[in-house]
């Protein structure tokens, strides 16, 4: 008959194998045909990509439409947009997605026919030279000082662009729904007119063992 010590000694390799299996991490390179993973605790690519595509598309599309309504064609020299940053007012920390969101918006502007972005390095240098934060550019004197600084860099611009991320959370016991809103504000520095477009995505989270969201 096996003693307790012998039983423990015989079971040790199997226990180590089970522990090792739990700690193994696997990865897969996703192709364009693969669906994005859905974040279980916070927003991820599945949330931010559609928000960016929709909000930027609506905002720039409206601007091009206004140009055509006035009887003008899309200008040969594209209007310049100074994208001054993203303000996160949501319940979540954006982490490394903040930089990705900025770059995606900047790239979509650059791909448009009517607009082009000012290089971010010039924008940061201009703000630093003036000792200003992006949210202080709503003050007329600050805006004029910043515009003059950008002109000294040979980077004049026609519009300021702000992006704001907000969220609203609806709680139902341990489950909750979070509504994500990405808002873009485009400010004409000559007229002061502001154009605003938003995109929203609702996402449900369910907690508990083997939790599954109801369809």
Tell me what the structure shows:
This protein has a domain at 45-118 and 157-205: Rossmann fold, CATH 3.40.50. β1 (79-89), α3 and β2 form a beta-alpha-beta unit. α2 (45-69) packs parallel to α3 (97-111) and α4 (120-130) packs across α5 (140-152). The protein is elongated, with a radius of gyration of 25 Å. It has helices spanning 4-23, 45-69, 97-111, 120-130, 140-152; strands spanning 79-89, 115-117, 159-172, 175-188, 194-205. It is an alpha/beta fold. It has a five-stranded mixed sheet with strand order 2-1-3-4-5. The protein contains five helices and five strands; from the N terminus they run ααβαβααβββ.
Chart the SSEs and their pairings:
Elements: H1 4-23, H2 45-69, E1 79-89, H3 97-111, E2 115-117, H4 120-130, H5 140-152, E3 159-172, E4 175-188, E5 194-205
Parallel strand pairs: 1-2, 1-3
Antiparallel strand pairs: 3-4, 4-5
Helix pairs in contact: 2-3, 4-5
Give a brief outline of the structure.
By secondary structure, the chain is α/β, with parallel strands linked by helices. The chain has helices spanning 4-23, 45-69, 97-111, 120-130, 140-152; strands spanning 79-89, 115-117, 159-172, 175-188, 194-205. Helix 3 (97-111) links the parallel strand 1 and strand 2.
Tell me the helix content: 25-40%
- Give the biggest sheet: 5 strands, mixed
Spatial gap, N to C terminus: 55 Å
Contiguous helical run count: 5
How many DSSP-defined strands?
5
Q: Can you identify the CATH class of the domain at 45-118 and 157-205?
A: Alpha Beta
CATH topology (level 3) name of the domain at 45-118 and 157-205: Rossmann fold
Uncertain parts = none
The percentage of residues in β strands lies in 25-35%
Shape: elongated
Strand line-up in the sheet with most strands: 2-1-3-4-5
